[in-house]
Amino acid sequence: MKRILVSSCLLGAPVRYDGRAKTLAGPLLDLWRREGRIVPLCPEMAAGLPVPRAPAEIAPGVTAPQVLAGQGRVLTDSGEDVTAPFVRAAELALQTARAQGCAFALLTDGSPSCGSLFVYTGEHDGTRRPGRGLAAEMLERHGIRVFAPSRITELAAALRAAP
Predict the structure, then answer these.
(1) Apex 53 CA angle, 101 and 19, nearest 5
(2) Residues forming beta bridges with residue 3, ordered by sequence position
(3) What Å distances lie between residue 96 and 38, 55, 81, 122, 149, CA to CA?
(4) Fewest CB within a 10 Å sphere: which of 48, 115, 117, 135?
(5) β-strands 56-58, 74-76 pairing
(6) What are the strands, taking DSSP E only, across the chain?
(7) What is the pLDDT of residues 135-162, one digit of tens each?
């Protein structure tokens, strides 16, 4: 059975940087829970980051592949370099997905870890840009398809089509 790595905050856990959840509900999640497909994970918490924590963004003009290659940073709104725990978070997301048989991931969009359609510009001004977070990038690189909550029906179709 193909399993789905799911951001813990989408499942109602108050693990986001601001100590809140970003709960996603609906019949697909209910079905996947009943089927035992869901593997909850907050990559940032798994890497030891606290809740709450300072908001962090991938530095301006830098992409997740650059950060993972050691050519960019993840910075808090006060300029603290938190690259190392975010890289560790990406590694742990991949390890967990592999260990639990996840072929797919449903991750919170916008996060410097979990974003799959967009992240923030790094200016800490609320402006979005297309791109992926580090965990999403790491998972995709290793064949685990990542979906944002806005694409949950696409995830359902991919799950049905999976061998």
Answers:
(1) 75
(2) 102
(3) 12, 24, 25, 28, 20
(4) 48
(5) antiparallel
(6) 3-7, 38-41, 56-58, 74-76, 102-106, 118-120, 128-130, 145-147
(7) 999 999 999 999 999 999 999 999 999 9
